């Protein structure tokens, strides 16, 4: 953050996964780093959609504590006619944060259990494969490069395993050969995905 300050760089922090915390480390919003000394150069993007499965209800929000930045953003949004809000989305988000703690706790338990199963089974059956650590979010990265040629990954995943995943290169060239799986789902689906990958490699 200090480097950004020195070079007058605006920080746009996407914190949509802020409530999906699985490790021991707490989530720290960008706007309160170092006691909030950088918050005037931070724009925070957020939504309850990941936390409470409320996608499509149009309730995302932007937090800008810097008055001048907020005025600039408001002018920009108004010019694009992006100032309308969804009443249903607002009510759903409020209900989620007011009454959804128990539900979220169950979701986190499912994600933890799915991750533990996936990691243990993959490590046992495919010891050269790397399952990345999962501290936050319900999306796990898996490095398949020890078993699958990066140029053949798409065919392996879609044609042989018949899975729909995110591909690592979407997030940077360094992640080519990785796939990303969603663990916020029925454990049976995770088990099927793991079994298909193991079967096709072996």
Written overview of the protein:
The chain has 202 residues and is α+β, with helices and mostly antiparallel strands. It has two domains: 98 residues, Type I PLP-dependent aspartate aminotransferase-like (Major domain) (Aspartate Aminotransferase, domain 2), CATH 3.40.640.10; 101 residues, Aspartate Aminotransferase, domain 1, CATH 3.90.1150.10. Helix content is 41%, strand content 13%. The protein contains seven helices and seven strands. The strands form two sheets. It has a four-stranded antiparallel β-sheet. The longest helix is centred in the middle third of the chain and has 25 residues.
Number of strands: 7
What string, H for helix and E for strand, traces the elements in order?
A: HEEHEHHHEEHEEH
Estimated helix fraction = 40-55%
Strands of the biggest beta sheet: in what spatial order? 4-5-7-6
- Write the CATH architecture name of the largest domain: Alpha-Beta Complex
Query: What is the global morphology?
Result: globular
The total domain count is 2
Q: Radius of gyration over alpha carbons? A: 20 Å
CATH topology of the largest domain: Aspartate Aminotransferase, domain 1
Strand content: 5-15%
Largest sheet features: 4 strands, antiparallel
Low-confidence stretches: none
Q: How large is the count of helical segments?
A: 7
Separation, N- and C-terminal Cα atoms:
46 Å
At the first level of CATH, what is the class of the largest domain?
Alpha Beta
Helix/strand-derived category reads alpha+beta
Protein name: cysteine-S-conjugate beta-lyase
Keywords: Lyase, Pyridoxal phosphate
Pfam families: Aminotran_1_2
InterPro entries: Aminotransferase_I/II_large, Class-II_PLP-Dep_Aminotrans, PyrdxlP-dep_Trfase, PyrdxlP-dep_Trfase_major, PyrdxlP-dep_Trfase_small
């Amino acid at each position: 953050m200090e480097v950004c300050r020195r070079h007058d760089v605006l920080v746009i922090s996407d914190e949509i996964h802020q409530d999906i915390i699985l490790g021991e480390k707490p989530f720290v919003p960008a706007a309160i780093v170092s006691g909030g000394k950088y918050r005037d150069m931070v724009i925070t993007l957020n939504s309850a959609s990941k936390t409470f499965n409320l996608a499509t209800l149009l309730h995302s929000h932007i937090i800008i504590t810097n008055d001048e930045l907020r005025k600039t953003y408001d002018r920009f949004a108004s010019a694009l006619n992006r100032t309308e809000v969804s009443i249903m989305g607002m009510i759903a988000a409020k209900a989620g944060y007011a009454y959804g703690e128990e539900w979220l706790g169950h979701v986190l338990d499912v994600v933890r259990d799915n991750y533990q199963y996936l990691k243990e089974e993959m490590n046992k059956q495919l010891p050269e494969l790397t399952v990345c650590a999962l501290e936050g979010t319900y999306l796990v990265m898996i490095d398949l490069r020890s078993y699958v040629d990066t140029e053949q990954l798409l065919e392996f995943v879609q044609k042989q395993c018949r899975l729909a995943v995110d591909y690592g290169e979407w997030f940077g060239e360094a992640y080519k050969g990785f796939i990303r799986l969603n663990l916020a789902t029925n454990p049976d689906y995770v088990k099927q995905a793991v079994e298909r990958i193991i079967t096709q490699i072996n």
